[in-house]
Give the backbone structure.
Amino acid sequence: MRVIAALKIRIRHMKDKATGSLDRRDFVIASLATVGASAAFAATAGAAAAEDQTASPPPTGTAYTGDLIGGKKVISALDVGDLDPGKKHAFYFQGVQMPTGQHWYVSVMVAKGAKPGKRIALVSGVHGDEISPVRTIQTVMDRLDPAEMSGVVLAVLDVSRPALEGMARRWPNSGRGIDLIDINREWPGNENGASAPSRHAGLLFNRLLKANADYAIDFHTSATGMDMAAFHLARMDLPEVRDMALLFPIDQIFDSPGYPGLLANAFIDAGIPAFTPEIGAPRILDLSMIPLFVEGTMNVLKHHGIIGGPMGRRPRYGRFRREQRAPRSCDPRRVRRASRRAERQGRDRAEGRHPAEYIR
């Protein structure tokens, strides 16, 4: 409103000076002021509308759009209770709209056991440069026999399709100028949010993930330009999270809530225990680490009674660290060396059991 008030004052001043008509200079100034006022008003109104609107309630049950992609049905909402038991099901979930009116689609697989039981969501592709998590979940799903299962395993493989297409960590977003948005700072999202990643996150969380999971694992790797040892980002103060995290045959757990907007935190806030495994380096299939996380995930499924069989390997020494933030300027090579040194020291101190105390 200040822009419009200033415009009125300027025009009134010009009228007081003018004898018959506006001169060219004043005409240009008035035109620019009008355009600026219109843009400011539109931006303010649009932002207010986006904030004021609340997400429409998700459809009851599984909603099919009627489309097929590669022979797979497209859904805009999922209720695993609608699916036939004892089978595997494959869909594409209809995500956010692109500027052209098309949608970004997300690959979904469901293994529904012949008997009722717990439901667990396995998620990958939140960052587009993280390849090993996708293969980890594919391997787990290949090993499942729904006829012998109790409960449901929901696999969501490629959350951020635009980022995956460019093998980039962040989602390209040009609606308000060139921008890159980390969708893993947007959860649980907002179906009417100002950015496409926020809306996409809202659609997935509300219509696909939250209603179909009792537990969740969101798989990641380090970011492009970095390398890391195998570890979890997990809130070890939460007993159900701790129980799952300690079922993986890896050596380190980073005991931290991480950042606001993480998918694992959105699950936890919704009452769904969740954590974030980190499978080494980005942009590669790490064939040495993937089997560790496959084995750990199968242990989690056995722990919850979804599949049967003896437990696999556990952590070799079961130590974990409280959060210790490194400065942003820290050299990644020094971080890697420190991480490997900590592993060696931990193995030297190993006592073959899980100590109750934390180490720093």
DSSP finds nine helices and 13 strands in the chain. The first strand starts at residue 63 and ends at 69.
